Amino acid sequence: MLKSCCLSPGLYAAMLLIAISGSSFAADRPNILFIAVDDLRPELGCYGHEAITPNLDRLAASGMRFDRAYCNQAVCGASRISLMTGLYPESTGLRSFHVNGWRKKLAGVTTLNAHLREHGYLTLGLGKIYHGASGHDAVDGDNWDRWFDVKQRTHWVAPENIAIQDRNAKAHQETGKGPKRGPVTESIDVADDAYVDGRRADLAVGLINQLGGRPESSAKTPLEENMLDEQKPFFLAVGFTKPHLPFVAPQKYWDLYQREDFHMPPNSEIPPGYPRGAANLNPGEITYYGGIPAGKAPTAWPDPLNKRLLHGYHACVSYTDAHIGRLLDALESNGLADDTIVILWGDHGWKLGDHSSWCKHTNFEVDTRVPLIMRTPGMESSHGTHTSSLVELIDLYPTLCELVDVPLPSHLQGESFAKTLGDPSVEARSSAYSSYPARVDKVSTIGHSIRTADHRYTQWWEKNDAGSVAAAVATNLSEDAGETTALSDDDPLLAELAEQLRSRVMAARESSAPITD
Ligand SMILES: [Ca+2]
Predict the structure, then answer these.
(1) pLDDT, tens digit (0-9, with 9 covering 90-100), for 184-225
(2) Quick one: 9-426 is in which CATH superfamily?
(3) For the chain, where do the domains classified as CATH 3.40.720.10 start and end?
(4) Could you tell me the distance, in angstroms and rounded to a whole number, from the CA of residue 88 to the centre of ligand 1?
(5) Which residues lie closer than 8 Å to 184 by C-beta, 6 or more apart?
(6) Ligand 1 centre and the CA of 298: distance in Å?
(7) CATH architecture classification, 434-509
(8) Can you name a GO cellular component term (predicted)?
(9) Which residues are catalytic?
């Protein structure tokens, strides 16, 4: 059994490679199963919540759970580009949910999948890894050995709901008013593969069976045989779209829960001084869908709707958990589990009624905190543990490089937390940094935020003047986990937090990547 806590990271990586059987150097490297889940907050059984997630729980029990992992911007596109490029949004300049044209803007940047491919990995991807699940540039199409498109026409399966989707879309196009999408929820008795995530799981299982040399165990053999000839280690990236809106999942996952058991959270307020424009109190994203009261703030939504949304989110989480269970089973049945690093990450958190709102798009703790679970072969001494070390999603790229002993590209702005994987008491960072654009008193700002061991501190900087702070708020998460109060303006801690924040922002801007624009 390997212990890493007293080893240098490089020596650890070398020993990890020795621990994993094989002959050639590239083949000695562990495989990587890289699972992204969209809009998944750490609302999981293994994190102590009511969500029914037996498969994520068993992954956590056989790996390491990160209790303080944070995204770098709480929206899909920006977060994912940051993770996959190893660059902060301050450097990429990509800060929206849609990041169309990102590949041209970041033409010189080596992505995680490109880098692993250059160093001997067979790179395979499907689903939502980047913001788009299809489209050559959207998915970084030049830099995978194979990218698989799994088609879907709509999010809904029930014919009446597809009709509502089509009707709403047409009416919205003609009038610019009303919802432009179908119902916000759907619960019907269909098989898992009725929705696109189920079909993605089917494909991923077929890939794992083929990679494991047991293609006969699956009806599908998606890979050309010549891709397997070199016996490269694989980097398989699988992105699931649920529990992202709309909350659609087979009935059996809804039936795991009783709707009356769900209640709105107690943290209905925002901290004093928190700019209302930065709190996303009227979340536009959810109003795209049918069934949301027109023109009413979430504080006025009826409780039956709130309960249905809470129920639907959890049903989608359990549906996704089932897919992940199938991937873990496939690793095990193919004898790959002991040679494969498994990473489960969410792209940002989500408000389930917290602060009287829904969705993401803020610097609040609930929007920036993400689930992160990793199982690393050769680190069995820390399996089944959890860590309170602060880590950021941008750290995954350098961490993986270190774990599989490939060079770190010079442009990376994150820091490896490989040592923490060997010993959960190792603190990887003193703060986690994230940012989010916001309008504050009609001024465009970027909200810069750090999470320290106890506090979250956010300053909103006017976009065109780095020295001008439009607002600032500090919360003590150890005493006020729901962030409804704030430190007083004369608290002596504020100056120290402000200095830490400034240094993090400046570092996030110091990119050495050959970005073109
Ligand atoms: Ca997302």
Answers:
(1) 999 999 999 999 999 999 999 999 999 998 776 656 678 888
(2) Alkaline Phosphatase, subunit A (3.40.720.10)
(3) 9-426
(4) 17
(5) 245, 246, 247, 286, 289, 290, 291, 292, 309, 312
(6) 20
(7) 2-Layer Sandwich (3.30)
(8) cytoplasm
(9) 76, 131
